[in-house]
Amino acid sequence: MIKSSLYELKRTKEIIFVLAKYGFGDLIESVGIPVRAKREVKLKRSERIRKAVEELGPTFIKLAQLLSLRPDLIPLELAREFEKLQDSVTPLPFDVMREVLEEELGCRYTDIFEEEFTLLASASIGQVYKARLKSGEVVAVKILKPEIEEKIYADIALLLRLAKLLREKFLVYGVDLVKIIEEFAKAIKKELDFKIEALNLKRFAANFKNNPNIKVPKLYKKYSTKRVLIMEFIDGIKINEVERLRKEGYDLKEITKKGFDLICEQIFIHRFFHADPHPGNLMVSDGKIVFLDFGIMGRLSEEDQKYFIEMIYYVIKNNEEKAASYLLKLSKIQGEVDISSFKKEMADIISTYFYSSLRDVELRSLIDDMLRVMSEYKIFFKEDNYLLAKALVTMEGIGKMLYPEFRAAEEIKPFIVKLYKKNFSPFSFLKYSHEINKSILDFIISAPESFNEIISKIRDGNLKIEFEHIGLEDFEEAVKKSFNRLSISIIIASILIGSSMLLSAKIPPTIQGLSLLGVGGFLFAFVLGVFWIFSILKD
Fold first, then answer.
1. What is the pLDDT of residue 94?
2. Distances (CA, A) of 535 to 180, 213, 224, 484, 491
3. Phi then psi dihedrals of residue 129, to 5 deg
4. 250: exposed, middle or buried (C-beta count within 10 Å: 0-12, 13-18, 19+)?
5. Would you give the DSSP letter of residue 226?
6. Which of 5, 7, 200, 460 could disulfide-link to 294, CB 3.0 to 4.6 Å?
7. Spatial contact of 58 and 91, defined as CB atoms under 8 Å apart
8. Among candidates 393, 111, 109, which has minimal Cα distance to 277?
9. Among 246-255, 445-454, 516-525, 527-536, which is the least confidently predicted range?
């Protein structure tokens, strides 16, 4: 407990120092902590935040990398800035990492491996080595850093407390700090468990077992655990080593097409895709594309898969209104939204990009403009749909790096048109009709039980029906005004009728044969009527 408290105290001081260093002294003072000397840093706010994150270490870098994939949680400009973060740190000595390896294997590492381990990469949560099994197979060994889980969870607990302190100040800007930390806690938990990555790798390999354009590392399940992942080592050329690829005789146009087609196949056919295909995670080996690091994977529901294909198809066919409708189906809406205005604005963006040649369309610019408008209307993609957009944009960037003439929009068109036609083929209709028949049959079977339950609740007096009236306030106000006016009209009419009767009967007191009460009633009714007319004209 004391150790934890001392760590939190030390870490809090570090966070305060770094925030003050990058010009966020006002933020610190807003929670009651005085800052001696405020600094002015001549950088954009988003750049200052990125530099502060880099200095604060692994937890903050991982948090920022998650947020770069979630423009629904932070402003788009900041998400783009976080994309620049590099997850590479000074490596720990092998002797330190060896302790984790042997603890997970339950034996000395030399019982399974040859002695030599060569460091390949060092990231915030783990390190990757090239090694050789006693059987002679060359493997990549990914090892989680010692005590990294405890450090990250301690940082999360501290961040959650700070987020609660600052929550109200950031909600004004549409940023919910508490939600951000809670989402991060869920995401990092998956990345800290290599068993999940092993399952992702196994599923990915099964999807592409018959595809000649891709090479997927073999998983060594026998030696893989929660903190150690062992897979086949594939010797290849990093996809951003353009000159080396050219010297090796590769056709860069062909490599570009293979890579982009593979990400489209992952998304639109298998609905399970690599969500972080940056150059560090892509290689070329024997003419095949190699994807590495399966920690962050995206999943697309069957329904959203259909909506994406429909949306892109209608974009290609220049039917902007229809495309905007499908975009809404792929999103979540916060609060009340003027849907017709949103559709019109989104249609304007789509038409701006697609009424010229597809060769001129850049997916990144298009998606950025779409996300900007969506953010203004408080409409956000579902989480995995952001990952999908990011994967496509990243692969477009790699394609342009390899082959500057590459146009992602042109490449995706035949792919989507083919899938769209397949979805509306007679075979697909037979498949859907089977599903509809099954749904009807399920309903017929389950309906009697559901009706019995409703009848039982009615008989026992336990049935409750809740009505929620949305947008009826104006109507309610109009009805109230109408009834008030009707009431005043009836009162005026009653006074006039009563006054007429008093005058006719010459009820005393009278002046020159006129009843004073009758005359007074007429005058009162006249004044009331004038005010009533003015109130109507005013409204």
1. 95
2. 52, 78, 81, 11, 16
3. -125, 155
4. middle
5. S
6. 200
7. no
8. 393
9. 445-454
